[in-house]
Every structure is written in structure tokens, then in C-alpha cells.
Amino acid sequence: MVSGLLTTKLQYSLILTDWVFLTRFCFLTEFGRLDFRFRYPKSRCCQNILLYFDDSSQWPAVYKRPEKNCYQKEAVLRPENNQVINLTTRYTWSGCVVREVLSCVGGRSFRSVRERWWYIALSKCGGDGLQLEYEMKLTNGQSFWTQHFSADEFGILETDITFLIIFSMVFLLSCYFAYNLKGRQLLHTTYKMFMTAAGVEVLSLLFHCVYWGLYAREGVGNGSLKILGKLLFSVSFLVFLLMLILLGKGFTVTRARISHSGSVKLSIYMTVYTITYVILFIYEAEFFDPGEVLYAYDSPAGYGLMGLQLVAYVWFCYAVLVSLKHYPEKQPFYVPFFTTYTLWFFAVPVMALIANFGIPRWAREKIVNGIQLGIHLYAHIVFLVITRPSAANKNFPYHVRTSQIGILLSSPKGGEGAESFPHHAYGNSSFLGDSQPNFTELFSIQSVSVNCKCLCIFEFILYRI
After folding, report:
1. What's the CA gap between 290 and 2, in Å, rounded?
2. Rounded distance between C-alpha atoms, residue 74 and residue 68, angstroms
3. N or C: the chain end with fewer CB closer than 10 Å?
4. Which GO terms describe its cellular component (predicted)?
5. Distance (Å, whole) CA 386 – CA 286
6. pTM for the predicted model, two decimal places
7. Closest C-alpha among 165, 58, 76 to residue 112
């Protein structure tokens, strides 16, 4: 549903205001329909509604072509295809009647060999400006899932609902795993970050589903819900990216904290990434031309995000290699971790390039939406699998309990070396049955003083009592 009030005055300058773009819509091959109601004063007669399609000889040939005047822009249309709706009483099929104003009510059906973008414009060549009150209902069939949606949006609501269910299951499963990890004092900050990313992703999809559900029912969505959904989607991505870099640097896996210089670098990088995302949102809202079918990453800010993603990957590679150099026993975790997330780091830039150059514009939005959500789901499921608290999991990364980290940092040797965990024979002894006392874990911090070991033994005895 599109409505509005348009008033312009002809100004003899580089801008010709006797021809103006109204809206665009991607119609199905057989079920596309436009129902309209136009009103304008008799003194502004006579105005035309122009229907362009996405062929190179039509819309691209006239839009943003200041060298062409109004008559030349009308000349590319084919009247025999009913591409011109003359808003006067001389044409009965325009549905116009004269009262105090010209009121035109009618409709058009669209037929084409494939889904096609149609662009609707208003003209009054050689006149003194335009004035029009309009209401247009653009539909594709009568189904709840297609009626109000442009053909490039088909399937987005169903896809978002499906991924909402799957991500909700991932989040609930992560909560269950977190409960088990907390019972074993292995619920580290990085796992909490993963849970945060998954939970925010669920909220993002929930807002998107509500937005598209309202749009499917009424033909008009609440734009604030869509913006909020996009913001939450970006927050989830940034939290997950930060978690990957921290794990690559060994945080909670081989060390208790990141060095001061490393923390500063991370803070600067994430600030730049966040600002770039904000710029992308502003650029999309303020500078994207509705007369063109554009993709968010097809912009300076979008290319900046892809560049930052590649910088993050280089940093990730270096961090993992350094961690493996000092802790080779962590290979069972870091090798699959590095391999699977290398694919993830490259998936976003590759998807952006394919979307810009390889996907037809009339199918881009729905395909990109599915691919983007699939990439996020892949990242979350992989992490859920490699960190599952199971005795059969040979890739489990954590071997130092959360209660022992404080002892490490406050030990008499609490200099620079205190931030690093002691070396640990890689295994999953933390997940022996609760009915069996696991004495190995009592002495897993070799760098701690005898007093600290005694404290751990005392805590264990109290626990068994």
C-alpha cells in the first residue's frame, strides 16, 4: 500500500519537476495487480501515470538522465501495452470523474515472462507543475504470504519464522549447556558472550517476524520494528566476532585475561567497526535511492565493513597461531575452530560480491536474507558443538575452572605470567560422571602455591560432605 500527497512547481533549472518518480514494485508473472485512486484539481489537468519496467530500454533509459526532458521520458513507453494512464475523463478506462476535483479510481493487471520490477512515475509535460493525492495498492495474488509482498520479498517471512524457531532452539540448548558448565565451574566469559549473541539474534528475528507479519496483513509495516531488528542483528554479529577474536587470542582457553595493549587494540577495532555499521545504517536510510534496486553492501560503508572483516580474519589467524605455538596441546580445539571459522570470515564478503554481481535484482533480497541467516546459524551451531559439555567431546576448550582463575591472578607470582593458564594435558576429564571424584582437577593449577592447593582440597571435602 502506497499513499501520499505530491505538490511541485515547475522551476526552470536543471531539475525538471514535470516528471517525478512515485514508487516501485516487483510483480509476479500472472498475478500482479495495481489498484489506484488519484485526485487532483481540474486546474492541474492533465496528468499521466507512467508504468515503466526494468528493461534497459525503459526505466534505466530515463531515470537519472537529466539530458532527457519529460517528452523524451514518455516516448520510451508503449501505449499499446497500457503503460500510460491518462488521468482525464476522455479515457473511460482511467476511471476518472469530475466533481470539484478530478477523481480517478481503477486498476491494472501485469503480465510478463518473469518476475519484473515496475516503476511508477507521474508526468505533466509542458505544464506548470504537479499536484496529486494518490493511493495505490500493489499486490501479487490473494495469498497471505504473497499478496502485499513485492516478488523479491517472497519467502522472507517464512524464512525468518523458520530461523527464529531454529535459533530459539540453539539458544535454549546453550542455556542447558551453560547450566551444566556452571555446575562444573567452567562457565567462562566467552561462553556467556556466545549465549548473548544467540539471544540477541533471537530478538532480532522476532522483531523482523512481527514487522513482516504486520506487512503481510495490512500492506504497511512498522518501520521502527525493522530498524530495531537490523540493529539487533548487527549487535549479535559484533558480539560473536569479538568472541571469536578473544578465543583466538586464548582468552579463557590459555589465559585469564588479555594484555593491556591487546585490550586497547580490541577496543579501538570494535569501536571503528561499530561506527562503520552506524554509517551504513545512516547511508542506507538517507542516501539509498528508492528508484534503484540497491543492496546495503553496495555502498562505501558496505565496502568498509568487508575490509574490516578481512582485517579481523588476519588478526584471528595471527592470534590462533600464537596460541598454538605456546599451547600445542590445544590443537584438538584450535584446529577445527580455525578451519570452520575461516569459512565464516570469508562467507560475508563472498556473499556481498555475489549479491552485487551474481543475483538478479528481482530475486536479490529474498536470496540474500536466507544466505545471511544461514551463515549466522552455521557459526552458532559450530560453536555449540565444539563447546558442548560432554565426555565424548574431544574438542572442548576449557580446562581451568572459573574459581581457579581468581587464584591465578592473585597468586604471589601475579606478574605478567599470571594471566596465562598452566599447561594441561588435553582431555575431557572434567566430564567424568558426578558420582566419581575427579582428583586430577584438584591439582590442575601447577603454578599455584601449596596453600592454594590445600584450599582446593578443603573445598572438595566440603563438597563431598
Report:
1. 13
2. 10
3. C
4. membrane
5. 42
6. 0.81
7. 58
Q: Can you give the pLDDT at residue 446? A: 37
Task: Give residues with Cβ within 8 angstroms of 239, minimum separation 6.
Answer: 193, 196, 197, 200
**DSSP letters spanning 370-439:** HHHHHHHHHHHHHHHHHT---TT-TT----S-HHHHHHHHTSTT-SGGGGBPPP-----GGGS-TTS--G
Q: What is the pLDDT of residue 417?
A: 46
pLDDT value for 423: 58
Angle at Cα 244 formed by Cα 242 and Cα 248, nearest 5°?
A: 115
Determine the CATH number of domain 2-140: 2.60.120
Contact (Cβ atoms closer than 8 angstroms) between residue 356 and residue 297: yes
Contacts from 275-283 at CB under 8 Å and sequence distance 24+? 276/301, 276/304, 276/305, 276/308, 277/234, 277/238, 277/301, 277/305, 279/304, 280/304, 280/305, 281/227, 281/230, 281/231
Give the angle subtended at the CA of 135 by the CAs of 132 and 140, to the nearest 5°. Answer: 140
CA angle 411, 414, 420 (to 5 degrees): 100
Candidates 42, 230, 25, 232; CA nearest to 121 is 25
Read off the C-alpha cell for 426: 588435553
The residue count for the chain: 465
* 304, 336 Cβ separation under 8 angstroms: no
Of 296, 316, 320, nearest in space to 306 by CA? 296
CATH architecture, domain 151-386 = Up-down Bundle (1.20)
C-alpha grid cell for residue 106? 481503477
Residue 387 to residue 128: CA distance in whole angstroms: 70
Domain ranges within the chain, ordered by starting residue: 2-140, 151-386, 402-464
CB-based contact 333:253 (threshold 8 Å):
yes
User: Which ranges of the chain have pLDDT less than 50?
Assistant: 7-16, 412, 414-418, 425-427, 432-465
Q: CA 194, CA 240: separation in Å to the nearest integer?
A: 6
